[in-house]
Amino acid sequence: MTDTTSNQMWGGRFAAGPDAIMEAINASIRFDQRMAAQDIASSRAHAAMLAATGVITGSDAQAIREGLLTVLSEIEAGTFQFSTALEDIHMNVEARLKEIIGEPAGRLHTGRSRNDQVATDFKLWVRDQLDAADASLVALIRALLVQAGAGTDWVMPGFTHLQTAQPVTWGHHMMAYVEMFGRDLSRVREARARMNESPLGAAALAGTSFPIDRDMTAALLGFDRPAANSMDAVADRDFALEFLSTASICAMHLSRFAEELVIWSSAQFQFVTLSDRFSTGSSIMPQKKNPDAAELIRAKVGRIFGALTGLMMVMKGLPLTYSKDMQEDKEQVFDTADSWMLAMAAMESMVKDMTVNRDNLAAAAGSGFSTATDLADWLVRVLGMPFREAHRITGVLVAMAETKMCDLCDLTLGDMQSIHAGITDDVFSVLTVENSVSSRMSYGGTAPARVRAQIARWKERIAWRTSHHLYLPCWGLPHAVWMANRSGPDLTAVWRSGQAG
Ligand code: ARG
């Protein structure tokens, strides 16, 4: 259906309304309504600033700020009527504000544009998600630290090429993922610190002639400072790209871990048993218990990485400053946030819930001649042999054990001496997996003592944070935006007194 009336927000020079297809391709309200709370927070900050700088009156600002809270409560209650004709969340909110408070609503958009407005709202949204990712990663790391702590000395095979390589400990394997998710956590924190500059007040692209105070709106919205270049401020989507790349790398880590859980929970491995809560049965094969949650985590990286590539392609070649192409930034980021948070939560729960079959790990640890390197190292250490020669002799002994269908430790001393006369009984001390792992005391090695030290280091590293990123239960909104919308005019007063002092 074609709306024949011109748009009430920018319709001054337009005689007719848009074609229905134009409206459909142009409107973003279907998805950008997810930024409603952020839009209202940034508008409330802007209104407070306009009054503080004398651009609008205090009573207009108060009407705007209170009216915006009414709009927010309607959106939260689900009674708000979103309109496609009004294009996006910014114009939907402003139009409703006009219905509620009348004339003062028209003064809100003084000294700003939708270009700096959308950049600000979207940044606030992405920043909230980085804080949520921060909390999720900390929870996942904590769950892994518990798993690692339980099995610092449980032996299991370590693989290269998915072939048995050397014995390692369960704790060491878990701590490898702690390192990965720890790097993800630092990427999240660095991205947050880098993006935390306010675009608000950049206006359309060139700044404004009104005597606005960008430091004030930046402070009210929890930004560290205003973005320094108005053209860059409205054209920049690096923060969204960094969010997507950080999510992509983390999703890749999650995917690798998920793949290990799929392998480990198979009937052939039986290293772990996934809980019923994270598995499904088969409609035809009664014996089946499928690791669906792990498989879906393994798959999520596909769409997340697709979103990163997608937005990179949208942004490449765009001339400065804002182009409508940039409206295509949101759905990819929203979908990534949903997939990423869900994948982290599912992984955390699976890590907490899974049963580790310690005996199966130990049985597998000794198979596949996993202590062959220990034998070669013994020949070097005790007999002073060059490593290459030790490697060759060990290879001959492995072949002998293979022929006899036994393990290295089942060969007799006579067998060993038939290959090299200097070998003594002492060699058997290094052929057990327990001795193998505890001997790997080099920094970063799998020895239980080393693993315990790493767990202690991580516990300390992870403990200092979280209190300032605490989530409030109210509609899953993070602290900063919730505060910006909930504190009354006193927020401005607090800011002013801080400036005066
Ligand atoms: N819905 C738009 C977006 O998401 C808001 C900015 C529109 N600005 C403009 N000059 N048309 O990008």
Please give the count of helices: 20
Which small molecules are bound? arginine
Coarse shape: elongated
Q: What string gives the helices and strands in order?
A: HHHHHHEEHEHEHHEHHEHHHHHHHH
Euclidean distance between termini CA atoms: 58 Å
Radius of gyration: 30 Å
Number of strands: 6
User: What proportion of the residues is helical, as a percent range?
Assistant: 55-70%
Task: Characterize the main sheet.
Answer: 2 strands, antiparallel
- Poorly predicted tracts of residues: 466-478, 487-501
Protein described:
By secondary structure, this protein is mainly α. The protein contains 20 helices and six strands. The strands form three sheets. Strands 1-2 form a two-stranded antiparallel ribbon. Helix 3 crosses helix 6. It is elongated. Mean pLDDT is 90; it is low at 466-478 and 487-501. Bound molecules: arginine. Residues 28, 32, 88, 114-115, 118, 322, 324, 326-327 line the site of arginine.
